[in-house]
Specification:
single chain, mainly alpha, 7 helices
């Protein structure tokens, strides 16, 4: 998240959102490996689908127990597709900050679950 934060501080909103989302995705993949005691992610989980990764890592019950995190996760997971990752437009400050802050909060929550 450090690189995403650096981009955000320089008003590079699209890059910040892109990297923040990938940090979450990478942590979900790490969580699967950590919880399953494996070194390598299985090929069927080499995806950008957060719902699939959360389910495989067994994190959904933990997310559902926290209504705020559940709402943030659900909204972000629905958006984390090519249209968000590769959007050619420019995110405006307010929308970019909201997305980044939500991603940062979700990332911190996931890091607490699987350090």
């Amino acid at each position: 998240m450090g690189d995403a934060r650096s981009l955000r501080e320089k008003d590079r909103h699209n890059g910040a959102i892109y990297l923040a989302g990938y940090a979450i995705e990478c942590h979900l993949k790490f969580a699967f490996c950590q919880r399953r005691g494996v070194l390598y992610l299985p090929a069927h989980l080499e995806v950008h689908d957060w719902d699939k990764l959360v389910a495989a890592a067994g994190l959904l019950p933990d997310i559902k127990q926290q209504p705020k995190m559940d709402a943030i996760y659900s909204a972000l997971a629905d958006k984390w597709g090519p249209s968000l990752r590769y959007w050619a437009g420019k995110y405006r400050g307010g929308e970019a900050n909201r997305l980044y802050n939500e991603m940062n909060e979700l990332y911190d929550f996931l890091r607490e679950l699987v350090p």
